[in-house]
């Protein structure tokens, strides 16, 4: 991503709610300006952020325990050095992201947690232009973000995590940011006992725990 990429500076409650109470030393890959991670620091946690944007990191340094610019090809943290890791809308931007996830997960101690959020490409409003118009638009952000390299679904993320030695700890439903649509889709999801979650949730969000031995996909 280039410096022209839009880095928002808004606290994300949807990410914050996934972070468990345990874990003092936390890493955040793709932290941006780190407004959400700053809340964890204020609560007494130690948060180390990395990002490819020097501009975003300049702000993050004022908010986190440490923050630095990294090369996207490097492993940003030492193995078994973290209690928890935040990957908030990062994996979809990476080539061979499933391999990067294996590397990232090794930074977390066994039974430590990894919080992941990625866009849901099976979301009903993402499928409409594809199925009925035969097109996939390019946008500056959101599901159609032109910098996305990966097509993400619940099943694909869970498969990647299994291969990375991560077991599912909790799933979270994240709905459309627009008030009316958010509540319509939430109601439909609850009414169908979450059977249609793959089509009604805007993002795929889950928390995983690292197992001691990674499995093969």
What does this structure look like?
The protein has about 220 residues and is of the alpha/beta class. The protein has a domain of about 140 residues: Vaccinia Virus protein VP39 (Rossmann fold), CATH 3.40.50.150. About 30% of the residues lie in helices and about 25% in strands. The protein has a seven-stranded mixed sheet, with helices on both faces. The radius of gyration is 17 Å and the shape is globular. The chain starts with 12 loop residues before the first helix and ends in a 7-residue tail after the last strand. The model has no long low-confidence stretch (mean pLDDT about 95).
How would you summarize what this structure contains?
This protein has 217 residues and is α/β, with parallel strands linked by helices. The protein has a domain at 13-121 and 150-174 and 204-210: 3-Layer(aba) Sandwich (Rossmann fold), CATH 3.40.50.150.
Give the uncertain stretches in residue-range form. Answer: none
Q: Strand portion, in percent? A: 15-25%
What's the CATH topology name of the domain at 13-121 and 150-174 and 204-210? Rossmann fold
| Overall mean pLDDT | 93
- Note the gap between the termini: 29 Å
Shape: globular
Largest sheet composition: 7 strands, mixed
**Architecture (CATH level 2) name of the domain at 13-121 and 150-174 and 204-210:** 3-Layer(aba) Sandwich
């Amino acid at each position: 991503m280039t410096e022209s990429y839009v880095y928002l500076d808004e606290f994300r409650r949807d990410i914050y709610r996934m972070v468990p109470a345990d874990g003092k030393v936390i890493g955040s890959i793709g932290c941006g300006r780190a407004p959400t991670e700053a809340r964890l620091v204020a609560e007494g946690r130690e948060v180390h952020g990395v990002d490819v944007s020097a501009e975003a990191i300049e702000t993050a340094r004022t908010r986190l325990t440490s923050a630095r610019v990294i090369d996207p090809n490097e492993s940003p943290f030492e193995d078994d050095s973290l209690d928890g890791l935040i990957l908030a809308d990062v994996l979809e931007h990476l080539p061979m992201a499933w391999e990067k996830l294996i590397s990232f997960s090794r930074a977390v101690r066994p039974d430590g947690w990894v919080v992941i959020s990625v866009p849901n490409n099976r979301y009903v409003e993402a499928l409409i232009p594809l199925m009925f118009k035969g097109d996939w638009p390019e946008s500056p952000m959101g599901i159609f973000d032109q910098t996305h390299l990966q097509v993400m679904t619940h099943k694909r993320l869970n498969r990647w995590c299994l291969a990375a030695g991560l077991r599912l700890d909790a799933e979270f439903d994240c709905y459309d940011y627009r008030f009316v649509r958010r509540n319509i889709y939430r109601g439909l999801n609850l009414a169908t006992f979450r059977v249609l979650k793959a089509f009604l949730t805007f993002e795929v969000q889950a928390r995983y725990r690292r197992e001691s031995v990674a499995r093969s996909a």
